[in-house]
Amino acid sequence: MIQRRKVIIGAMGVAAAAAAAGCSPSGKGGGDAASWVGSAADVEQAVVPVRLSVTPADGNAEVSPVKPIVVSAESGTLQSVTVTAGKAKVDGAMQDDGSWRSTQDLAYGRKYKVTVTATDSAGAKTTEGTTFTTMKPEKTATVTFQANAMVALKEGRTYGAGQPVIVAFSRAVNKNAAEKAIEIKTSPAVKGKFYWRDDKTVHWRPAKYWAAGTTIDVTVNAFGVKLGKTTYGAKNASTRFRIGRQLIAISDNRTHLTKVYVDGKLVRTMKSSLGKGGGTTGANGERISYWTAGGPHVVLGKKRKHTMSSASYGVSDPKDPNYYVSENIEFCTRITYSGEYLHAAPWNRSLGRANLSHGCINLSTADAKWVYNNFRIGDIVDVTHTPRDLPIWNGLGDWTVSFDKYGR
To answer: Is 203 a catalytic residue?
Structure first.
């Protein structure tokens, strides 16, 4: 409502005018009183009412929790803005243009109350309250980071030059939407590509092995993002890891030698014995090969002692010629999900001369211990001159595929 105030400019009385006339130089009375008496006028000054604007509007439902709350006052000044959902309070800040904006995401499925106080040009206060409700997804997907399918990626840790970025969603997601939510920054900067292992797990790698000392920052801005027909991101997630020295081991099936290079320099040559070839049939009818798979492998983990048995793929009859059990094998460094390791094989008298293993890379105890102590998750073990290729899904076979054919 427009308020109107009357302001009296001023007036001089008739008596005052007459007294002034008596001082006329001519000595005559009857001067023009009107020239001495000020006019009285009522001057009206309008006070325009405050008009408040709140976004989301009062009563709105299915509001995105990532869209900010914005409050502004037309023909007035904001004094305070309070946003609450039960006992929880939403933070916000005044902007340069005089509006107020929330500075944090909201929550799914909550009712929010916005209370605003503003003043008009005359100092009169106006207070208004509005409410709105955020959307409640049918399903939400959380995000984790993996070094591989068996080991989580640790924040701030150092990994080898073959370690891809691996983002795992807790349920199936739309691949295009998920990729848009993932932000990867590296120093030095490199270009990379996505490869989906399945509809929940995506890898990202550059064209070449990581350079030593590279830092990788990964952010998944999933909260409030529609990742599927009825699935939204549960919350945002981020991590950072670093690449250490660039270690690449090359294990040659023909020469029976494994050579280790650190930052391009040969640091160790080890006599080896790789897969003997041939194979058998697993319990589920699958073909089990005793060739060591060829191509770049990535170190997945290490075990000080490990028992290896043909029963792991279904050959459990001691009478079967392919049956074996090797207990407490020492210094085991794993390179595939199917069970290929670099490990100590003191029983193998053909290191450096012949391939006799069931697919692992046999080493002397001293060499296996050195590998165990010096290799880290993400290091490269490239097996050459073997007739069987490493499938991309068996461990981290990401580097077995040329960059132009990698991913979608």
So the answer is: no
